[in-house]
């Protein structure tokens, strides 16, 4: 799920070598083997002070720099638009606390380990994002002697809404935010000419850019966006400016709660607002770009599992489905086990 930067340089070189633009955004949640003088760094937008994180079970530490902004908050007029570079600050910025988590879902009762552990807000464009225990970068950094970077970026309607004939809301804003997010969008960066100078290798795990859920034609993207606007009671005409102003004024939580309603017949893997052809990040559908050879020729690390799709068979078992909570009885559970494991004894 990542794009690999060139050679591992000194931390200062890595920080200063990253040009903050509205393209591939990778500034820093930086974990590095601790050495003297690495608690403070100068980055393109100012100076930051990090902290030392201990490694459980050993008397070693890594240096961490948390919550470094890489773009302006996507609020008000900046909502749905491509990211703009963060503003320069004076003095030393505190980089010892995780930043806000991105607006997505309020939480998953019964699965709290996946819920964000910091404040949820659209003002979240920073690196060094909320780190759940299962994703804590210090262990990978220490064991593999690498720099680990994590960041927030927009997803769903807030990241991929596009409007016909709009110069400011063309879609794919979430792709301009990110460094990576699974094999689908890593593949999109491999297909985007503007991303090619920003990394040298890539890892694709689970998914592909030409999967049926990974991109849609512009007309379909526009129809979904207009449907969402209707659900949010935003005017569709006569002026597109009125609709855009309305969409920017709606609470982000309301957008998130309604975005899946734009798909009339959802299936197991339904992405209501995936990337689309915007003429800038993606100049054509991924399948066409792959067939014509318009992608970065580089070293790739690919992974797959023989039974990766087996998980989704659960939705075909008695009492289970994508439209309900799948609260099943013991008998239904055992019947499902028999279906999934032929010959098993109950």
TrEMBL record:
It comes from the Eukaryota. Keywords: Glycoprotein, Hydrolase, Secreted, Serine esterase. GO terms for molecular function: acetylcholinesterase activity. One of its GO terms (biological process) is choline metabolic process. It is found in: Secreted. InterPro entries: AB_hydrolase_fold (IPR029058), AChE-related_enzymes (IPR050654), CarbesteraseB (IPR002018). Pfam families: COesterase. Its main location: secreted. Residues 43-124, 179-326 form the Carboxylesterase type B domain. GO terms for cellular component: extracellular space; plasma membrane; synapse. Coiled coil: none annotated. Belongs to the type-B carboxylesterase/lipase family. This is Butyrylcholinesterase. It comes from Sinocyclocheilus rhinocerous.
């Amino acid at each position: 799920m990542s794009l690999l930067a060139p050679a591992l340089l000194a931390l200062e070189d890595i920080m200063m070598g990253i040009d903050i633009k509205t393209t591939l955004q990778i500034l820093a949640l930086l974990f590095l083997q601790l050495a003297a003088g690495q608690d403070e760094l100068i980055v393109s937008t100012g100076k930051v002070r990090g902290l030392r994180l201990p490694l459980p079970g050993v008397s070693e530490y890594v240096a961490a720099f948390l919550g470094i902004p890489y773009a302006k908050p996507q609020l008000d007029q900046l909502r749905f638009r491509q990211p703009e570079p963060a503003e320069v600050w004076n003095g030393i910025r505190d980089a010892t606390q995780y930043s806000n988590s991105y607006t997505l879902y309020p939480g998953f009762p019964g699965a709290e380990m996946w819920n964000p552990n910091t404040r949820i807000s659209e003002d979240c464009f920073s690196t060094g994002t909320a780190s759940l225990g299962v994703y804590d970068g210090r262990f990978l950094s220490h064991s593999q002697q690498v720099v680990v970077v994590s960041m927030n970026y927009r997803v769903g309607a807030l990241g991929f809404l596009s409007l016909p004939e709009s110069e400011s809301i063309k879609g794919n804003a979430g792709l301009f935010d990110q460094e990576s997010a699974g094999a689908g969008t890593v593949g999109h960066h491999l297909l985007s000419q503007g991303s090619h100078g920003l990394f040298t290798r890539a890892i694709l795990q689970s998914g592909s850019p030409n999967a049926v859920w990974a991109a849609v034609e512009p007309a379909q993207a526009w129809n979904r966006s207009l449907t969402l606007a209707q659900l949010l009671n935003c005017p569709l005409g006569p002026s597109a400016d009125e609709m855009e102003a309305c969409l920017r004024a709606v609470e982000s939580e309301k957008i998130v709660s309604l975005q899946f309603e734009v798909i009339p017949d959802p299936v197991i893997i339904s992405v209501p607002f995936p990337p689309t052809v915007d003429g800038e990040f993606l100049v054509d559908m991924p399948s066409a770009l792959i067939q014509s050879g318009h992608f970065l020729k580089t070293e790739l690390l690919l992974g797959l599992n023989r039974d990766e799709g087996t998980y989704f068979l659960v939705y075909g078992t008695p009492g289970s489905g994508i439209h309900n909570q799948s609260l099943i009885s013991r008998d239904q559970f055992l019947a499902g086990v028999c279906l999934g494991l032929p010959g098993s004894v109950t």
